[in-house]
Amino acid sequence: MKLDSKVALITGASSGIGAATARVLATNGVMVGLAARRKDKLVDLKKEIESTGGQAIVLEMDVTDANSVNNGVQNLIETFGTIDILVKNAGLMPLSDVENLKTEEWHRMVDVNIKGVFNSTAAVLPQMIKQNSGHIFNLSSIAGRKTFKGLSVYCATKHAIAAFSDIMRMELSPKYKIRVTNLQPGAVATELYDHITDKKYRQDMADLEKQMTFLSGEDIANSVLYALQQPDHLNVAEIFILPTEQGW
């Protein structure tokens, strides 16, 4: 895909992987829709992007609310004319053992990590089908192909996204020329760990950060850029990216 003047919607764009992806794509000529709940962070990011010659729009969006997503997508299309790229990055990862029954956290993960992906897909797909082109990125995880203690519900959500992503590719790519990429990062330095309320697992993550160099948001953003820049006949269906020191 030639990126100049293409249009991207990035959910969870207020920090971490989402913000880094917005910066990288804008630097490469993509007009970016910055979607998240924290409008103040998005406004700052928009100013940063525009200061270097890029184009961006702020879309205050809650991915768990279908109306909020639909309104944001419509706003983006009205502003830039279309949507060529969708990066579904919004997610939560509060760790805990099943026996602790942190059911509110379980449901919140399902709402954001799974339903948020469904809402974003449903809002954007009609435009991509209409134009017979597009590229969709689903943010799964190493937890979408392996399982870990303390990550039962998170692993379940990310396994769901991995399955959804592959079937999307099988159904959409041959028929509508919509490429689908499943991103599966290992340990990344993001705000995900701030959601951990279990003291034991929060300490475990702090200890892990001392044992290896975590990936940065820019590392994942560059993987998105790599997949986008491949010729149209080539679909990078899956990217499994880990810190060199991550042996599990």
The largest β sheet comes out as: 7 strands, parallel
* Low-confidence spans: none
Span of the ends, CA to CA: 34 Å
| Number of contiguous helices | 7
The percent range for strand residues is: 15-25%
* C-alpha-based Rg, rounded: 17 Å
Estimate the helix proportion, in percent: 40-55%
Q: Decide which structural class fits the backbone.
A: alpha/beta
Shape: globular
**Could you give the order of strands across the largest sheet?**
3-2-1-4-5-6-7
Mean pLDDT: 96
Q: What is the element string, with H for helices and E for strands?
A: EHEHEHEHEHEHHE
Q: Give the number of DSSP strands.
A: 7
Task: Report on this structure.
- There is one protein chain.
- By secondary structure, the chain is α/β, with parallel strands linked by helices.
- It is 48% helix and 15% strand.
- The protein has seven helices and seven strands; from the N terminus they run βαβαβαβαβαβααβ.
- The protein has helices at 16-27, 39-51, 66-80, 103-131, 152-176, 199-211, 217-228; strands spanning 7-11, 31-36, 56-60, 85-88, 134-139, 178-185, 238-241.
- The protein has a seven-stranded parallel sheet with strand order 3-2-1-4-5-6-7, with helices on both faces.
- α3 (66-80) runs parallel beside α4 and α4 (103-131) packs parallel to α5 (152-176).
- It is globular and about 50 Å long.
- The two termini are 34 Å apart.
- The mean pLDDT is 96.
